[in-house]
Structure formats: C-alpha cells, structure tokens
Design a protein that fits this description.
alpha/beta; 7-stranded mixed beta sheet; 34 strands; about 30% helix; globular
Length: about 650
C-alpha cells in the first residue's frame, strides 16, 4: 500500500485536550522516561505490561482491591494472569459516580425507530439495578449462575446485565430476532437459571410477537427456573408460560436502596459471548470481569476519548459484542444513546435525527451501514446539526477508503473517524483509533495500547510493510477469554487461537501494516481466496465493486474448479439496475484497476439477496458451502437463511 494523504489531522488544541495526551504525560511522570507520542507510549506498554495496566487501573480509579501482583506467568499465552490477587465488581465500576455527572443527568436515552422512547437519569438507573439485584438474590441467583436475556436494546437490558454482574452471575444475551433454534443452540449449552425476555419487539414499523418462540425456548431449557417478561404484552404471556412473571411483579417486593456489590476475583466470569455459529454450533466464549473492564476503560477513555458528560451512540443489538462494549461507556460518566429497530425505517435519516436531537458526541455503526448510507443519497452534514459530534466509530467489517471519504464529505469534516477491529473472541479491539494522530483513507490508525499486534507471513515472521499476512497478537492481554464453556482442559480454546503459531494469538484476519503505522484488514483468513496459489482478501474486491452505484452489495467466494479454485462474485443490484455485459465490464475493469488482474472474478452473477448474520456480517463460508451443495451447519445464526437457496445449484457455475 502506498502512503495516502491524511483525511483529517487533529488540531493542536484537540490533541492537548484529549485523555490520551493526559494519560501519556501521567505515564511519563510515573516512569521518569520520555514518552513523546502515542507510539512511544505503545512501546512502553509492551515493555512493561504490568506497569502499564496498573496505570490504566489508577487513571480510571478502578474500585476494588488491586492486590500485590500485577502480572503472573506473563510469558504464558494462554495462561498469563493479570492482577491475580485483585478483587472488584464490574457493575460497581460501571455505576460509580464520576466528577461532573449528577444523579439527575441522563444515564440512558432510548428510542425505538420512530415510535418514541424515553430516558433514565443516573438515579433512576441505579434504583433499577438496586431492585433487580435484590430480586435476583431473592430468586436464589448466586455467583457463577447464568442469567440469560432475549431483549431489545433498551434500558431494562442494561439494568439487568448490571444487576447480574452485581451478584456475580454470568450474563449472556441474544436479540429477539434470533430463531428459537438459534437461541437454544446458545443458551442450551450454558444452562441458565433465569431468563429475561420480551413478549413483543418492533422492527421496520411492525410489532413482532414472541409468544410461540418464547414458549419453545423456555421448554427447551430444562435448567430454567424463572422467566421474567419485560414490556408490552408481558402480563398475557406470563400467564401462559410456566414459572413466568412480569418485570413489575418480579420487582414489586423491593424498594430501591444502596446496591450490595459482590467483591469478586479479577478473573471471575462476567459474560459468555457466542461466536456467529455459521459453520457449526456457536462457541461459548467466557470473558473475565476485570480484563473486560480494563480493556473497555482504555479503549473508550483513551482511544475513543469518551469523557464524562459525553453522549455515546452505537447501533447494535444484544446479539453483538458491541452491545457489551457500548454498555461500558457508562464507566466514563457518559450518557448512552440506545436504539432498537431498523436503521432505515422510516427512512435513512432516522439515526441522524436521533443523533442530532440528543446531541451525540460519538456515533458508532458498522461499515456496511456507512456504505448503505452513502448509496442512499443522504448527507447528514447538509441536513442535520451535528455540532457536538466529535467521533464516528466503524466496525463489523473493513471500512473501505470510499467509506472513509464519505464520512468526511457527507457527515462532518472535523471529526475523528476511528475504524476499529477486534471481535467477540476478546470483546474488545486489537487495532483501533488514536485521537492524537491523523486519519488516512482505508486505514485503522494503530494497535491498542498494551496489545502486541503484528502481521505475520506464512513462515511465522513479521511481514514487511504492505505485505499481507495473518493478524497476530504475540503477548498476553487482560481480555483474553478465560476459555470456552464446557471445554475441560482448554483443547478447543487453544486450537481456535494458538494452533497456527505456538504461543501467539492468531486472530484469523488477513491484514497488512501501512507506512503510517496503521493497519488494513482484508477480510477473514478462512474466507481468503486462493486462485492459482495467490491469496486474495475479499475486502479488496468489495472496496472496488461497492463503489459502483448499480451494486448495492457483493459477496465473493472460491469455487472448486478444475483442480484449483476460481473467484465467483455475486452482486445484489440497486433497484432498477440490470447485470448486463456493460455493467459486467465496468465491474471487471474497476477490480482490475483498483485491485489487480488476479482479483478479477471468473464469473459474476446477480442475486436477489445475500445471507448475513444477525449483526449484519455477510457469510462467505456459508455461501461457499451452499455453492458446492454442502450442508450449512447452522442456518439459525443467519438473519435471512432463505437467501442461501439463491446460491445452490446454479447452472451458470457448471461451465
């Protein structure tokens, strides 16, 4: 990759006012060594990991007992333990009082499409958590028990998660649009004792009843002792389900008061997150409370510059790790702006109406949303007052250079655009933004502090700048999972991340480093195309194809062909567009000129839809299996599994 001109450079005043600068200077004072910029700070964070993570603990004033040791078995990966003698409670740190934030200030604001919403103050959130904590304890929920949720992205979900954490229960969640089989594939593995659920959720202007689905789910979880129904239709459904009650009835005996937070080890299980499960039963990834807390404090407070009084929006559901990430913004004293429903109902302006009306300082979304917004024709810069907006965050898939440029041209010129990448596996980021450094088109700015992230070639050596390879992390970090649920001895866990390179986390992303010290992600390694023995990242193809107005979305897969593989590109066309010879020529030309001749697909075919996960990620592996007539292991993980039929038995692919 050649060096590109910066799209945005923070002003000296903005750099000076950032929490990253304040933290860097504090670390200089702590260590007595010069740390002139973030790169020097990053180098020190790797040289002295125990001291670095202690600085994070102290800077954000973590509530708890730090203990004597900062890092034990620091060379073991997996096996290293950060703060092995510490005790803390995740919820207590999330709900703590921050300077400048009053009890009456907004903690949560929520909206459901264009159907209204509401807000809770900090006092109201703390009262809700207090009552829920008492109710959980009265129901017999204790440390280590699993509490599950099938809920929309609303205030009750936040309060329920924090209450579960307060008593030491292990939280797990899914969004209500999951099918019953998909929910059971997840919750059925971890044996929850209590389930929070809704009777109705709304999407694209429609109210969708969950009664039959919830009955099937509850009946398929033999360990379930109580179902708590939240929201409209709750009373009627609670009468139909055994061991069910409404949230009001669940809380009725308890008055709000001071919450009793269970002091727990740093490595106490906080939550179980689930892999997408598109190639088999989802993995149940167990995350440790202290590690998640420190990572999120660092990522939001330093890399994203979220400060007390900020108003943070992220478009997500309870089925995506970004919901857990968003919730941690409360620990900075920020207001969370929650949204549930379709981001394009009743039109493309709905999220920007919300951001403008609620004076959002941070707007988070997926790269797919940014591309869809660009193609919708809406330019929020011209239609909305975004005076307070300081940052746009993008994740879920690689953000193209065109996507970067659109944000600066169509949203706001003076803001920090932070493309971030990590995953459910670590419920945090490997590479992300830096508010003190320039932003370049198509590039993630750099590695997270404390994260020894590199790109390695096939021989297990650091790749040269611009050379593509595997994204790895060669040293331990606090939010490494405890392991997988029901994986005695950790064999599945080690095989998932440490089999490729011994003692090094191999994340499964195909990437390269840039001359600016940044990163470009080219897609998942397991979806990388390999025609003629040359590895090609799918994101490189999408970046060229999706800039063509007639193409709404695309997916590229490898088809077995004559002892090798060939690249097949499927395109979902914009309304009214036709895949004729002229459009095919333009697609091929765009790929050839923008990527390389090797990236040009052997076949281009139109499809009416492209299958994706509940969080909006397209599923190349599932399409590849369907293309070859092989069964797809877990279609319940897909938002639109019926789309897979469009890729099977294609006569055009027999020649």
């Amino acid at each position: 990759m050649t060096a590109s001109q910066a799209l945005w450079t923070p002003s000296p005043a903005r750099v000076e006012a950032s929490a990253m600068t304040a933290f860097r200077r504090a670390c200089e004072r702590r260590t007595g060594r010069a740390l002139p910029d973030t790169r020097a700070l990053h180098r020190w964070s790797l040289e002295e990991p125990g001291a670095f993570w202690e600085a994070v603990w102290d800077t954000f004033e973590v509530l708890g007992e730090k203990g004597e040791r900062r890092l034990a078995d620091g060379d073991a990966m997996p096996g290293a333990r950060f703060f092995p003698d510490a005790t803390l409670n995740f919820a207590e740190n999330i709900l703590r009082q921050r300077p400048g934030v009053g009890d009456g200030d907004d903690a949560l604001v929520w909206r459901v499409e264009d159907a209204g919403g509401g807000r809770w103050s900090w006092a109201e959130l703390r009262a809700a958590v207090s009552r829920l904590t008492q109710a959980l304890r009265a129901s017999g929920i204790r440390s280590g028990d699993r509490v599950a949720a099938l809920l929309p992205n609303g205030p009750e979900a936040v309060a329920a998660m924090l209450a579960a954490s307060a008593v030491g229960a292990v939280w797990c969640s899914a969004s209500p649009d999951f099918g019953a089989r998909g929910v059971l594939d997840r919750f059925g593995q971890i044996a929850p004792r209590l389930l929070f659920a809704c009777a109705v959720y709304r999407y694209a202007g429609k109210a969708i009843d969950l009664g039959a689905k919830l009955a099937e789910i509850a009946g398929g979880l033999p360990t379930l002792e109580r179902v708590v129904i939240i929201g409209e239709g709750g009373e009627a459904l609670a009468r139909q389900l055994p061991d069910a009650t409404t949230l009001d009835a669940f809380l009725e005996p308890f008055a709000p008061g001071a919450t009793r937070f269970e002091p727990l080890p740093f490595d106490h299980p906080l939550a179980i997150l689930f892999s997408s499960g598109t190639t088999g039963v989802p993995k149940c990834i167990v995350h440790r409370a202290g590690g998640v807390l420190l990572q999120h404090l660092k990522e939001q407070g330093l890399h994203s510059d979220v400060q007390a009084g900020d108003r943070v929006f992220y478009f997500t559901t309870l089925g995506w790790m970004m919901w857990n990430w968003l919730l941690s913004g409360l620990a900075q004293g920020a207001t969370l702006l929650l949204f549930d429903g379709s981001p394009f109902h009743p039109g493309p302006a709905v999220l920007w109406d919300y951001a403008a009306q609620e004076r959002a300082t941070h707007f988070g979304t997926s790269a797919k949303y940014i591309d869809a917004l660009r193609k919708s024709g809406l330019k929020p810069a011209a239609s909305h007052d975004l005076a307070r907006l300081r940052a746009v965050l993008s994740t879920g898939s690689p953000l193209s250079a065109d996507g970067f440029r659109f944000v600066y041209e169509g949203v706001k010129r003076d803001l920090h655009l932070a493309s971030i990448s990590g995953g459910t596996d670590i419920v945090s980021c490997f590479v992300l933004g830096d508010p003190t450094r320039p932003v370049h088109a198509g590039e993630i700015q750099g590695p997270g502090l404390g994260m020894a992230v590199e790109v390695w070639n096939e021989a297990g050596q650091p790749a040269a700048v611009g050379e593509k390879g595997e994204l790895v992390c060669r040293r331990p970090f606090p939010s490494m999972p405890l392991g997988f649920w029901n994986d005695e001895g950790g064999a599945r866990y080690r095989a998932a991340y440490f089999e490729r390179f011994a003692g090094v986390w191999c994340h499964g992303d195909y990437a390269e480093t840039t001359p600016h010290g940044g990163f470009v992600i080219h897609g998942r390694s397991d979806a990388t195309l390999n025609p003629g023995g040359v590895r090609i990242g799918t994101a490189e193809i999408y970046a060229q194809v999706e800039r063509i107005p007639e193409v709404a979305e695309a997916i590229a897969v490898a088809q077995d062909w004559e002892g090798d593989v060939r690249v097949v590109l499927f395109v979902r066309l914009a309304e009214g567009a036709v895949l004729d010879e002229a459009l095919e020529r333009r697609i091929r030309q765009g790929i050839r000129e923008g990527a390389s001749p090797r990236h040009v697909p052997a076949r281009i075919l139109a499809v009416a839809d492209i299958p994706r996960t509940k969080s909006g990620k397209i599923v190349e592996l599932a399409v590849r299996e369907a293309l070859h007539g092989r069964p797809v292991a877990n279609t319940e993980a897909l938002a639109n599994p019926e789309a897979l039929r469009l890729f099977a038995n294609r006569e055009e692919l027999t020649r």
